[in-house]
């Protein structure tokens, strides 16, 4: 039997994340896996090889692992981008941030001119009016774009829509007497066009192109998401809350199986409207359908809501602005039941907890479940876990829990957290990466794309610098080193997905997944880390240049 | 309280009974009881999930995905996180449906759910019913995690079903009922065992008909079953202001659990402390009012005075 050919890539520097051999100049690849990293003469011992010099002036790292993202980011790019900050689309075009409401309207007008039919809907995303002062966006703003077609724009947070008058009409909401906390009324007694919360959003969503059918099972969206991954050096990305109906699983298996598909997708089954027995059974069956590039069989659980939406569950003293406490999304009995059964069946569970009371409840539930069902290596992970304090991190370590924190929040909403939601002290403690590491909690960090842009290098920059959009530094004591940050976006995230034996470092036996960088993240100044340029990736030994996807 | 029916179906807006309450309070028992008592009414019963709310097997005619066909023309759907989608498509998919019973998840806030339902012009909230387990409700309301969830659920109720009364002694029961009254100041409190309540309280009174036997309890062994409820049927003069009538019947102290009146092409629906005015169904007999309350609590005099037109002027100043 003849062995497959060997390719040896030469690089300017290879940062391996393997402590026994932290740096190398060459990496040998066969059958999409790593034979070894080291000097050429050592690797030559594997036999005949082709020397590939294309990365001779590049820096290789283990392919980045995005531990909390949603493939919906690929879907959203079918809508007009209206965010405050520059953002790169899947084709590599950078869309300039909108600096004012006027800017937002102008962009919608430009997009509107490309539509042929006068009734075709116009949809946008990424709007973040907190950067435009106190003035709210109202329907009159979007009526300047069109009064004949429905216009709907989702906020960056994903929790609010702004629409025009036509969209309100179609949704049956342009009437007096609307009485709902998520729908502010204007002086005329009619809705202003702002719709907060999932219920109000669902009612207009279908009329402005955000209906469920458009978002589910989106093949083009998945392909666009994969392109974004390549541009950001990501070779393994989570799709963290999917209902995974059969047709979506078939589509994902087919698309990820295409020879040119560049990323490994780890899709979690969302726990809702099911008993723990049912969802664990589904997860076990899904796991059997996994392929190399589509990993299934884990479960995502929602414990509470979001901090900026005031639906996260906070412990005393609650919200800084006095808002009532948030909402539980799953009863503790169901959480305990799910944890216990999942431990028994070896199924991985990641739990969304934003507020510290939600984190506390998840810890209590897991502690109880572990007494009934001891498990040595479960890797249950708290996702976001933004407000956890030191004592909670110590408990997490004791219970074998991992944390996947959300440093990007500091940049995009840190000022809002400081001023409104949780106040200065807790805003400085939020996403306490340093405490997590010091406590021995396995750590990952994430973007929650499309909530914030996919980009582990940017997320690492956020964890290192903890800057807000206004330039405020939130809690220097929780900043981590560049080396630690780079570890969290590779091995750290891989660990939370039980993939650290396969990916996350460049060493013998692992997948040949590399992030290919133009700049050396260990040489660039830490405050410039986000400016590291990315050439693309190698995934399973296959090079994917960002400019070629 | 508006009588507008814009965007509604020809038959008027679909009444929605929201049933809330924490896990283990008897919501599943109640839902199954209502399905059994539908008695020809075509109900759509929406539950968060069939796992948490199992429907009695003998009621199920067929099942397909998230939908169960129930004997007698009812349908049962699980909505998960798609409640609004389910409600938006229901009138089109099931034009025969007359009424919706919406069971919320154990940690949902029924007041917020009801507020969301009112965004859909095809529906009106008939009543918010919150179940409480009299044995555990006060402990739950002290729970470090669930305290405010329980009290916010209760605070939104029009009717509180104080369930499992057979599990506590009389002293404890009276204390708990008094406590519930402080938590749900705008609600009528209805003591019950095994969620046994008159189905008409939640499913509505028949057009132009006095409550039938189904308004009384028939469960063997239930104490004073037949005498628990009292019903009244009265003529209402055309000159009575229907909004004022609703206000009086739902006022504190009347003991009215449910009332329905048809007057001048408008229908008045009272559930506990809530009242709504909607278009009267075509052909409904005008000038009639039907009222149900607990026998021990219903203030017959207050009800009789409520339909006096002369008083409607003199009381207007309050």
Describe the structure.
The complex is a heterodimer of chains A (549) and B (318). Chain A has 549 residues and is an alpha/beta fold. Chain A has two domains: 73-214, Diaminopimelate Epimerase, Chain A, domain 1 (Roll); 218-539, TIM Barrel (Alpha-Beta Barrel), CATH 3.20.20.140. Chain A contains 18 helices and 23 strands. In chain A, strands 1, 2, 3, 4, 5, 21, 22 and 23 form an eight-stranded mixed β-sheet that branches. In chain A, strands 6-14-15-16-17-18-19-20 form an eight-stranded parallel β-sheet. A five-stranded mixed β-sheet of chain A has the order 7-10-11-12-13. In chain A, helix 13 (390-399) links the parallel strand 18 (381-384) and strand 19 (402-405). The radius of gyration of chain A is 23 Å and the shape is globular. With 318 residues, chain B is an alpha/beta fold. Chain B has helices spanning 27-36, 83-93, 110-117, 137-140, 147-155, 170-183, 199-203, 242-249, 300-306, 309-314, and strands at residues 14-20, 43-47, 60-64, 67-70, 74-78, 99-103, 123-133, 159-163, 188-191, 229-235, 256-263, 266-271, 274-279, 288-294. The longest helix of chain B has 14 residues, at 170-183.
**Rg of chain B (CA only):** 19 Å
**Main β-sheet of chain A: number of strands, strand sense, barrel status?**
8 strands, mixed
**Major sheet of chain B, described briefly?**
9 strands, mixed
Helix fraction of chain B by DSSP (H/I, runs of at least 4): 25-40%
Order of helices and strands of chain B: EHEEEEHEHEHHEHEHEHEEEEHH
β-sheet strand percentage of chain B: 25-35%
Any idea what the shape of chain B is? globular
Mean pLDDT of chain B: 86
Beta-strand level of the residues of chain A, as a percent range?
15-25%
Global structural class of chain B? alpha/beta
The tally of strands of chain A reads 23
The name of the CATH architecture of the largest domain in chain B is 3-Layer(aba) Sandwich
Q: Name the largest protein-protein interface in this structure.
A: A-B, 37 and 36 residues
Q: Can you tell me the CATH class of the largest domain in chain A?
A: Alpha Beta
């Amino acid at each position: 039997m003849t062995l497959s050919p060997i390719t040896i890539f030469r690089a300017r520097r290879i940062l391996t994340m393997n402590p026994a051999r932290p740096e190398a100049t060459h990496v040998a690849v066969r059958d999409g896996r790593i034979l070894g990293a080291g000097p050429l003469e050592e690797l030559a011992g594997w036999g005949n090889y082709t020397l590939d010099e294309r990365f001779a002036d590049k820096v290789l790292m283990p392919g980045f692992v995005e531990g909390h993202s949603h493939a919906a980011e690929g879907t959203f790019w079918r809508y007009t981008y209206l965010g405050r900050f520059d953002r790169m689309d899947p084709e590599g075009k950078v869309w300039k941030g909108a600096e004012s409401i006027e800017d937002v309207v102008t962009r919608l007008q430009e997009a509107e001119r490309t539509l042929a039919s006068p009734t075709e809907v116009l949809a946008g995303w990424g709007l973040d009016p907190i950067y435009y002062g106190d003035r709210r966006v109202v329907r009159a703003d979007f009526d300047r774009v069109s009064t004949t077609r429905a216009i709907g724009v989702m906020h960056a947070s994903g929790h609010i829509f702004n629409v025009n008058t036509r969209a309100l009409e179609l949704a049956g909401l342009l009437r007096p007497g609307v009485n709902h906390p998520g729908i502010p009324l204007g002086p005329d007694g009619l809705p202003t066009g702002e719709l907060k919360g999932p219920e109000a959003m669902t009612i207009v969503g279908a009329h402005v192109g955000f209906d469920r059918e458009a978002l589910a099972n989106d093949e083009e969206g998945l392909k666009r998401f994969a392109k974004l991954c390549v541009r950001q050096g990501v070779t393994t990305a989570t799709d963290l809350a999917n209902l995974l109906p059969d047709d979506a699983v078939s589509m994902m298996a087919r698309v990820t199986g295409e020879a040119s598909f560049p990323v490994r997708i780890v899709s979690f089954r969302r726990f809702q409207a099911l008993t723990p027995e049912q969802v664990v059974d589904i997860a076990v069956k899904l796991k059997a359908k996994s392929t190399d590039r589509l990993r299934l069989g884990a479960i995502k659980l929602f414990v509470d809501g979001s901090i900026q939406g005031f639906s996260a569950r906070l412990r005393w003293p609650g919200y800084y602005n006095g808002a009532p406490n948030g909402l539980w999304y799953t009863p503790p009995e169901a959480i305990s039941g799910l944890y216990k059964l999942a431990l028994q069946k070896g199924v991985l569970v990641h739990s969304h907890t934003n507020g510290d009371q939600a984190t506390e409840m998840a810890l209590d539930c897991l502690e109880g479940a572990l007494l009934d069902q001891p498990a040595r290596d479960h890797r249950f992970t708290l996702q976001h876990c933004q407000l956890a304090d030191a004592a909670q991190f110590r408990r997490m370590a004791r219970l074998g829990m991992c944390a996947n924190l959300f440093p990007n929040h500091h940049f995009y909403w840190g000022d809002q957290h400081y001023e409104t939601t949780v106040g200065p002290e807790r805003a400085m403690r939020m996403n306490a990466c340093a405490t997590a590491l010091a406590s021995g909690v396995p750590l990952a960090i994430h973007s929650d794309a499309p909530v914030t842009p996919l980009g582990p290098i940017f997320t690492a920059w956020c964890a290192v610098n903890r800057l807000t959009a206004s330039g405020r530094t939130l809690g220097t004591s929780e900043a981590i080193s560049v080396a630690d940050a780079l570890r969290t976006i590779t091995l750290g995230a891989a660990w939370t997905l039980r993939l650290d034996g396969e990916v996350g470092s460049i060493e013998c036996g692992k997948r040949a997944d590399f992030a290919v960088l133009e700049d050396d993240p260990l040489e660039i100044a830490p405050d410039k880390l986000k400016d590291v340029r990315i050439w693309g990736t190698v995934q399973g030994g296959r090079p994917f240049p960002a400019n070629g996807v | 309280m508006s009588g507008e029916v814009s965007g509604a179906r020809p038959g008027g807006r679909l009444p929605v009974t929201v049933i809330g309450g924490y896990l283990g309070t008897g919501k599943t028992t109640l839902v199954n009881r209502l399905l059994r008592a539908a008695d020809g009414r075509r109900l759509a019963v929406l539950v968060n999930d069939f796992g948490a709310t199992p429907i009695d097997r003998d009621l199920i005619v067929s099942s397909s995905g998230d939908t169960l066909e129930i004997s007698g023309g009812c349908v049962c759907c699980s909505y998960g996180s798609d409640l609004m989608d389910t409600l938006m498509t229901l009138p089109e998919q099931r034009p025969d449906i007359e009424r919706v019973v919406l069971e919320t998840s154990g940690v949902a806030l029924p007041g917020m759910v009801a507020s969301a339902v009112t965004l859909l012009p095809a529906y009106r909230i008939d009543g918010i019913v919150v179940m409480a387990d009299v044995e555990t409700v006060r402990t739950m309301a002290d729970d470090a995690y669930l305290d405010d969830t329980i009290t916010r659920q209760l605070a939104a109720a029009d009717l509180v079903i104080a369930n499992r009364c057979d599990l506590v002694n009389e002293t404890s029961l009276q204390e708990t009922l008094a406590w519930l009254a402080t938590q749900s100041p705008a609600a009528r409190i209805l003591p019950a065992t095994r969620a046994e309540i008159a189905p008409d309280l939640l499913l509505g009174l028949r057009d132009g008909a006095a409550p039938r036997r189904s308004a009384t309890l028939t469960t063997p062994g239930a104490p004073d079953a037949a005498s628990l409820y009292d019903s009244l049927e009265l003529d209402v003069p055309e000159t009575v202001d229907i909004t004022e009538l609703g206000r009086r019947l739902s006022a504190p102290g009347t003991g009215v659990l449910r009332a329905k009146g048809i007057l001048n092409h408008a229908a008045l629906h009272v559930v506990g402390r809530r009242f709504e005015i909607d278009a009267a169904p075509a052909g409904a007999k005008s000038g009639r009012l039907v009222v149900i309350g607990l026998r021990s609590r219903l203030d017959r005099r207050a009800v009789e005075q409520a339909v006096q037109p002369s008083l409607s002027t003199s009381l207007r100043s309050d």
